[in-house]
Amino acid sequence: MDATSEPSAPLTGATRAVALEVLLRGPVSRSEMARRLDLSAGSLTRLTKPLVDDGLLVEVDTGLDQGVRTGRRTRPLDINPSAHHFVGAKVTGDDVHAVLTTLRAEVVASARRPLTGRDPESVMDAVRELTDELTAGGPPLSRVGVSLGGRVAQHTTVTEAPFLGWTEDVPLGALLTDALGLPVTVDNDLLALTRAEHWFGVARGHDRFAVLTIGAGIGYGLVMHDTVVDSPDAGIGLLGHCPLDPLGPLCPSGHRGCATAMLTTTSLCAAVSVGLRRSVTYDECLDLAAAGDPVAAQAVTAAGRALGRLVAAIANFTLVRKIVLAGEGVRLAEVARTAVDEAMRADRAPTAAPLELDVQHSDFTHWARGAAATAIQAHILSM
């Protein structure tokens, strides 16, 4: 069986648990895996042998002799990343960004296609064309993942997508499955990004953490006990209504000083533009603040303070210690880092554990990788 083929049979029970353990923790020694899964050495050998024979697992040489005590050399097991490939597609209101990835969500290729319309047929056409482009002459696909801003039910039906103007149920997963001849998993984009950070990103190995995104909107994802917290309300931006500054500006919903009013790129640009009496871009706001412009510096400092308060609130309510910050607006955390840190400390108990704020610069390829991670997760867990 070659490296791009499917396993000969679906994975179930303990066999799937072994594959998942290696995917998330590998490379891992057989003894460590047996301890984690509470399996005997014989049972583990029986379970791993077909996975190695099928090419899903491979023995790797870490340069360390793990069998020195027994007099024989043993090599840890790892996932063969090229055993399966996936396409992840992130749909915006204007275009679709897609990536081809390995089983470890490593990006092999990427592509973008503008939407000819915002109707379901136009979205389907773009995803289908991108899938064909990314896989032309390449390995067979195991699954496709699609993410978008909005509500998604059962990983297949989009119940609401404001950026696309969808207000009625669209069975996007089923429609694309028929069109592509492959299983398709649909997810809210923020939840997909959280899944990617959990399994393959900077939060790999953490059983509890939060993802916060700032940019055009405010996004929030949470992992507790190694599980992404999902909810029908995940796609409506609830955290954007969190009050942060009683003297802050108004958001479009009329809330004063909420996260949307203080932290979105549009809000910061509006605040600086009013003070300077001219229109400015987001990067220009941050550049001016870094250079000491009094208007921009005050607005950016206020936004940084609001960001620190929001991070502290998330940690206080959920008891997480690691928060991943992503989105197109993350540069705010660097320019206003002093204000962010001061606000985080001010809103935390003096004896509380320090927080780890991991700033991740991301683009739409990063979001598309999240869609691929959702597909990988669905593939592994449904094996």
Q: What does this 3D model show about the protein?
A:
Residues 1-9 and 64-68 have low confidence and may be disordered. Helices cover 40% and strands 19% of the residues. The longest helix has 25 residues, at 294-318. It has helices at 13-25, 30-37, 41-53, 120-135, 172-180, 189-199, 259-263, 265-276, 282-290, 294-318, 331-335, 337-346, 364-382; strands at 57-59, 77-79, 85-91, 95-102, 107-114, 143-148, 151-153, 157-160, 184-188, 209-214, 218-224, 227-228, 322-326, 356-359. It is built from 13 helices and 14 strands. By secondary structure, the protein is an alpha/beta fold. The chain is globular and about 70 Å long. The chain has three domains: 13-82, Winged helix-like DNA-binding domain superfamily/Winged helix DNA-binding domain (Arc Repressor Mutant, subunit A); 84-196 and 365-382, 2-Layer Sandwich (Nucleotidyltransferase, domain 5), CATH 3.30.420.40; 204-359, ATPase, nucleotide binding domain (Nucleotidyltransferase, domain 5, 2-Layer Sandwich), CATH 3.30.420.40. The strands form four sheets. A five-stranded mixed sheet has the order 5-4-3-6-9. A five-stranded mixed sheet has the order 12-11-10-13-14, with helices on both faces. A hairpin with a 2-residue loop joins β11 and β12 (227-228).
